[in-house]
Amino acid sequence: MIHTGDMSILSLIVQASLVVKCVMAMLAGVSFMSWYWIFRKGLAISAGRNATSDFEQQFWSGSDLVQLHRQVSQNRETAGSLGRIFEAGFREFSKLHGQKGLEPADIINGARRAMRATYQREIDDLEAHLAFLASVGSVSPYVGLFGTVWGIMNSFRGLGNVASATLAQVAPGIAEALVATAIGLFAAIPAVVAYNRYIHDVDRLSIRFESFIEEFSNILQRQLR
């Protein structure tokens, strides 16, 4: 029997059954991975937002498009998503503009398709591993609940041969089982909060990208007149 003085969180984890320990270990590993991606995606999205603002400021300051395209081409890794979208569109525009027999609409549509393809790759990269956070947020509580149910079943099963059960006999087993649910919630709550926040941030960036594609397409169209 576990005495009340032994009912610290650590002692409850140590004295849990093998199945509950496995559940706790799995949830702890998942929680560690989710925190890793929470910090990594947070830094990536923040860097993407700053790079987008820097490029917009440079673009709308009246920079020469050819010179800007050259700068972005030489520093694609640090140019940010919007810079790479611009680079893809202007490169395709320059290539098609040098060909004879093409209508202006064909040139603009080609540049827009190139920007759209790069846009999709950039959004996919920003959204990478967010599905993992969503899965952790939705599944972890149920995994923890499974460990709790299993622990409570074991606790009551151990009382089958006891003539009279007391709260002191049942409480430790239930307490150690509930730790699994607590760990599951600890893994799920930050993952859900981070997922919702990051999806919102990516949506905001995607709107800025789409607006730029349309505005830049209009600028290119005016150059063909």
UniProtKB/TrEMBL annotation:
It is a multi-pass membrane protein. Residues 82-210 form the MotA/TolQ/ExbB proton channel domain. It is found in: Cell inner membrane; Cell membrane. Keywords: Cell cycle, Cell division, Cell inner membrane, Cell membrane, Membrane, Transmembrane, Transmembrane helix. The keyword Transmembrane helix applies. Its main location: membrane. The chain crosses the membrane at residues 12-39, 130-153, 173-195. The keyword Transmembrane applies. InterPro entries: ExbB/TolQ_transport, MotA_ExbB_proton_chnl, Tol-Pal_TolQ. NCBIfam families: tolQ (TIGR02796). Belongs to the ExbB/TolQ family. Part of the Tol-Pal system, which plays a role in outer membrane invagination during cell division and is important for maintaining outer membrane integrity. The Tol-Pal system is composed of five core proteins: the inner membrane proteins TolA, TolQ and TolR, the periplasmic protein TolB and the outer membrane protein Pal. They form a network linking the inner and outer membranes and the peptidoglycan layer. This is Tol-Pal system protein TolQ. It comes from Uliginosibacterium aquaticum.
